[in-house]
């Protein structure tokens, strides 16, 4: 591979090689998560609780499906936004820590050797939000 062909963003990201990614279609995935109060819902709820606790505001969003507005992720490669209330398809790692938009998935699928599962396979798993980066000043 020549220097011009090297994609600097994916250089050194060996942890993404030969993994199974899960196809998630929003808002359907969120509606299922909210209805079942499954692992994804619990992860969003955990993040929302941390946010409210640290920022000392936003308690009104912890009730009902308003909680979904606390969560969003970005494509690991291009930074496209995944949101629970948007019409979009993303692929994520099993722990839901890394998200890849549909375009980047198609672009890099062969290079990384990704397998594909359906997001519904993750619904029964226990998931945890990343360590919070929100800080109160």
Structure commentary:
- This protein is of the alpha+beta class and 137 residues long.
- The protein has helices at 28-36, 39-55, 102-112; strands at 20-26, 72-74, 81-83, 88-92, 99-101, 115-118.
- The protein has one domain (14-122).
- The chain is built from 3 helices and 6 strands; from the N terminus they run E-H-H-E-E-E-E-H-E.
- The strands form 2 sheets. The protein has a 4-stranded mixed beta sheet with strand order 5-4-1-6. It has a two-stranded antiparallel ribbon with strand order 2-3.
- A hairpin with a 6-residue loop joins strand 2 (72-74) and strand 3 (81-83).
- The longest helix is centred in the middle third of the chain and has 17 residues, at 39-55.
At a glance:
It is built from 3 helices and 6 strands, in the order E-H-H-E-E-E-E-H-E. By secondary structure, it is of the alpha+beta class.
Number of strands: 6
**Class from helix and strand fractions:** alpha+beta
How many domains, in number, for the residues?
1
The rough form would be described as globular
Helix content: 25-40%
Topology:
Elements: E1 20-26, H1 28-36, H2 39-55, E2 72-74, E3 81-83, E4 88-92, E5 99-101, H3 102-112, E6 115-118
Parallel strand pairs: 1-6
Antiparallel strand pairs: 1-4, 2-3, 4-5
């Amino acid at each position: 591979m020549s220097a011009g062909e090297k994609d600097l963003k994916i250089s050194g990201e060996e942890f993404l090689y030969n993994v199974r990614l899960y196809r998630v279609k929003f808002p359907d995935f969120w509606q299922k998560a909210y209805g079942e109060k499954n692992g994804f819902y619990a992860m969003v709820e955990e993040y929302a609780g941390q946010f409210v606790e640290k920022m000392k505001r936003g308690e009104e969003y912890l009730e009902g499906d308003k909680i979904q507005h606390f969560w969003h992720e970005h494509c690991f490669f291009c930074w496209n936004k995944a949101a629970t209330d948007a019409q979009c398809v993303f692929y994520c790692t099993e722990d839901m820590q890394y998200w890849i938009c549909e375009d980047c998935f198609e672009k890099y699928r062969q290079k990384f050797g990704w397998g594909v599962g359906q997001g519904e396979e993750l619904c029964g798993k226990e998931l945890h939000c990343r360590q919070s980066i929100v800080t109160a000043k």
